[in-house]
Write a structure and sequence with these properties.
The protein has 404 residues and is an all-alpha fold. It is built from 15 helices and no strands. InterPro entries: MFS, MFS_dom, MFS_trans_sf, MFS_Transporters.
């Protein structure tokens, strides 16, 4: 059984979760509209929008390696602060370049905005692993997700209002959110700085075949979930023809279902172990994206988002838990960073693949979303392979909270 009470009293878990909530408030207000922003306001073709999101994620891949390394070498707080403060300047610069119609620089800065999140994510994930024991770690990550998604529940609704008044204010909202995030991070304790010495000759890289196999599974999940950012909003606006301002309601459902459903879902699946939980989440993801093919209005898309978010609730905290269990002492940040790097490759190819599929099949719903949904099935298959190979090595993930 997953216990939340001890983690709620864990001050460091709450602080890093609140800082993430501030970040997700800004991202939630902006992210549903970014593909629309590039398409309608900067007048880029749909496939160019996909390429830009690919470049964004490729940069995130590089920065994730750096973020994981810095989290271990310089400490979690240093890396969190660096990522958060950089976000303030990057998002403010994006707003100013758009205001003065320097669109080429706007696009370049948008691509490099991945620097901020790529430093914050592995540091926050590693910090939670530091301050929780294996038995309560799933609870720690679930609290992190619940508080983060309070921002995702409120942010998109706020974004819909901001979009109606002027899209440039969305970037100002990101700046304010980054400032609030930075203030909260000030209360994080400094800890876990890696002492250099033997075994750190290749400090940026990790060599673990089981981490590699597991990361392939998460790669397919991210290929699928990255349609959330580009393909879903573009398909909703172009094929289903919903009002762009209404996109906020769809994404608010995502945050709301996390806040409401994260705890009961984790409790329900606690008895089955991490890998079964991940497989169930992958199949929920696949189902959620597949039924988009049959949606014809805003309410249908909101229902689809409920199913998609159930997949997210089961996979996202489980990814962090599995990686934290398999990582050796002193390398948690780098293990998180490696997985984040692989996931960034998924985010890089996901938008391009999704937009290419939509373009090729002329926005035919059944063809488009059937092909996209199959990524979730591939992820479940790879997890089965991971479980078999890992168990043969003498380790097991039969029960939650069991140190492997």
């Amino acid at each position: 059984m997953v216990s939340f009470s001890s983690d709620i009293r864990n001050r460091q878990v709450v602080i890093v979760s609140l800082s993430s909530m501030m970040r997700s408030l800004g991202m939630g207000a902006s992210w549903p509209f970014m593909a629309i922003f590039l398409s309608l306001y900067i007048h880029l073709a749909v496939y160019i929008v996909g390429i830009i999101f690919t470049l964004l994620s490729l940069m995130s891949m590089v920065f994730s390696i750096l973020g994981g390394y810095l989290a271990d070498l310089k400490g979690r707080k240093f890396t969190l602060m660096l990522g958060s403060i950089s976000g303030i300047f990057i998002y403010l610069s994006i707003a100013l370049t758009f205001l003065f119609h320097i669109y080429t620089l706007t696009i370049i800065l948008f691509i490099f905005s991945s620097f901020s999140g790529s430093l914050v994510y592995p540091s926050a994930s590693a910090l939670i692993a530091d301050v929780t024991n294996p038995e309560s770690r799933e609870g720690g990550y679930s609290i992190y997700r619940i508080l983060s998604n309070v921002g995702w529940a409120v942010g998109p609704l706020m974004g819909s209002f901001i979009y109606s008044t002027g899209i440039i204010y969305i970037f100002y909202a990101l700046v304010v959110a980054s400032i609030l995030q930075t203030i909260i991070i000030l209360f994080v304790k400094k800890q876990n700085v890696l002492k250099t010495g033997k075994g750190t000759r290749n400090p940026f890289l990790v060599y673990d075949k089981y981490l590699f196999i597991f990361s392939i599974a998460t790669f397919f999940i991210i290929l699928l979930s990255s349609q959330f950012s580009v393909s879903l909003p573009l398909y909703s606006e172009i094929a289903i023809k919903i009002n762009v301002a209404d996109l906020g309601y769809i994404y608010a459902i995502n945050g709301l279902v996390v806040v409401i459903g994260q705890y009961p879902l984790i409790q329900l699946f606690a008895r089955f172990g991490d890998l079964i939980t991940f497989i169930a989440g992958a199949l929920f993801y696949a189902l959620g994206y597949f039924i988009i093919a049959f949606s014809t209005n805003l309410y249908g898309l909101m229902f689809d988002m409920v199913i998609i978010t159930m997949g997210e609730n089961l996979t996202t905290p489980t990814i962090n838990t599995v990686i934290s269990k398999m990582s050796p002492p002193g390398k948690t940040g780098r293990y998180m960073g490696f997985n984040s790097m692989v996931n960034s490759i998924g985010r890089a190819f996901g938008p391009s693949m999704g937009t290419y599929i939509m373009y090729t099949f002329h926005y035919n719903g059944l063809a488009t979303w059937s092909l996209i949904a199959i990524f979730g099935v591939f992820s479940a298959i790879v997890i089965v392979i991971f479980a078999i190979s890992y168990n043969k090595s003498g380790n097991t993930y039969i029960a939650r909270g069991t140190k492997t």
